[in-house]
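pipeline/complex-builder :: batch 7 item 3
reading input block
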Amino acid sequence: MLTPIWQAALMAFSLAVAAYFVLFNGSQILMGLVSGLFIGNYVRTRTRRDVALTARVAAAPFVSVIVPAHNEALTIVESVRALLALDYEPREIVVVNDGSSDDTLVVLQGAFHLLAAPVAFAQPLPSETVRGIYRSMDEPALVVIDKANGGKADAINAGINAAAGALVLTIDADTIIDPAALRRAVLPFLEDPATVGVGGYIAIANGCRMQSGRITAVMLPRSWLARFQVVEYMRTFLLFRVACGSLNALTLISGAFGLFRRDAMIAVGGFDRTAIGEDMDVTVRLHAYYRARRQPYRIVFDPSPLCSTQVPEDWASLRSQRLRWRRGLLQVLWRRRRMIGNPRCGLVGIGALPYVIFFEGVGPLFEIAGYAITAAAAITGLLDWTTFGLLIAVSVLFGVAATLVAVFLNDVVTRRYMGGSDLVLLVVAAILENCGYRQLNSWWSSVGTVRTMTGRGEWGLMKRRVFEGQKTPV
Amino acid sequence: MSSIDASLFDFHRFAIQTAWLGVFLALLNAAAVVVERALFACNEARRRRIDRRYEPVARRALDGDEAAVEQLANSPRRHRIAIAWMLVRPLYDDRDRQRVARARTIFQAMSLVEVADRWVNSCWWPRRALAVRALGLFQIENRTAAIVAALDDDHAEVRAAALDSIADLGDPQAVMAVVVRLHDESLHRGRRFAAIAAFGPEIEPSLLEMAGVDAANRLNYARALRICGTARSLPTLSLWTLDPDVKVRAAAFEALGHIGLDRHAAPLALEGLEADDVTVRAMAAYALHDWAGPGNIAVQLAQHLDDRWPVAVQAASSLKTMRDGGVAALQAAASRPDLAGELARQTLWEMAARC
């Protein structure tokens, strides 16, 4: 029989777990309100005319789109064709072949008639040896850099070195960019010269119909695993990131789409080649750099879907992706620990990073411990099943409420998935996602934490799927 | 024991209340999603209905059919804003004077000018912004003062709308309002320069006049002259290339490069190549592009191929435009083993590829 003290401790722990769920999801709902205010203003102000502003200004900023490619032979040609069709001028596409062992360079040479060209550029950022530079005879805006393998961050650094643009857009080779994305993303730079970076909402491409590297019809994915990620992405981007972005405290410009001022990237030393979460690392370093120098700066988040990406539809790929994200997060938090709670770092230091460390760093461990201990206590009769059921109910209901706020904001800002059946599927996904998927993610986060602490971890590969209307996987 | 039981009871009660709060929030948010979607669908259906009903009429009215104009003028008041949107949308891209004039006639016939006049003073900013935009897009006469006054509105979006509207209006009376606010950071930066670009060289005399009395904001005037300057600005810009502020010097060289140098300005650009500031040197190199005048300027420019990178790039770019003199200088530099040689080879390759 448990002593009264232990029983009281168990009750206190259960109370703390319930409070955690309320606090976490309540904070997400509150952030939804902040995001709602921002999005309401955004929807009114970002009209078609605003998006066309880049065509009216005398000198729209030159944008270099940097595409790091490692073993992307199957998809790279279609990706580059889609980028060349971007509705923005002036721009150049810099593809960095990061030591691919497949035919990435060969297919590019064949498709775009590449010729080895002397290209001179200063190399302010460190990168592996550049083996050759190619220019296209068909597409003057295309530059291909062939370099020794050094990882994604290294490839982007090589691209930034060679970029001719005042702005550099870093994307993944499989990112599907909206044709108007650049015109939208450039706007904050035109509004305010202090803008150093712009991130965007990454939509999910699974289930969508594709043609020539572009999405022609937006549809919900068929698999429930991808649908869970649809609502999960909505929550991540439209609650936390929009709220942080509106307060100039954005901690992550996703690697799938990030537009930066080139001089700012060079000033902070580019992407850290040893970082696993290089996108979060560089975003936080930008904050640190400008805060330390007391220079005005702005890192903006655009809530409209600027691009889409494919998410894993099998458990193994998802697991390896989440473990990698976890390692990246913990590494950045550890490296930038001096910023956490530091009032000199402004809202990033006293708001965003502590939030990340509490709810994303420690939260999953606490959540898993909460489930495990209360379930064990209920099974052994130390805790009554009603209390356990109430804990689970609080966790699920508040989670569903927060997710539905994100669905609401997604409706307002993107108008994606507007069919009647889509609504039903989204609501069902919002409920089911909180009944297993979210807990599984917390479990993987806990495993990732242990692996990071013990120095184990692997990169992992993602199985890609074929889109509707497409022959090869993108 | 009893205190623990009481605490347990309290915890149960708290957990039940929290769960009910969760149910309430989830249902509330689900209802918000459904209601928002329903409202959106209703609005869209209404818009489509109005479009279907009035689009053919609006098209006929824009083609000059008086009966169609009459029909639109007699449309129900509740449909008029939607009809105005129908007229406004094509005007964003098509600023053909006749089309604007016909759209204006319809706008006036529907008594929407009075609505816009009312909305300009509305306490709700989206209405003010919409009204200011409409007045500019339809080029409504005698509304310049109202639009210019909107440049000082409390809301940034209304101020931005006023800048767009001034650009659309094309009224020379509004030019000065933009010029004197060129350095007003409360106004949208991109739009300030887009408005200048919309007026083009027409704005140049006012800019030069203002620049003469407002030396503190010379940088902005130089940037504006880069957009709309002509040969008339060359003496002023040449003078500014000697300004103590390096930003002004760089901007003046950039504007000179945009306009094209004359034989008085070219030696100044050469002098600028020896400046201490990198940006000034880079812009001086840029200013020399297309130079075909006397003097062996290409050789002097080629010496800057091993200057700091921004200068070297601009020097190579200018040499590319200097025909035979530029090619000879680049070929001479191409044999160098350093970055300058690589840059010269790249430039020659690009010239050959273009051929």
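note: Chain B touches chain A through 53 residues (CB under 8 Å).
queue -> next item
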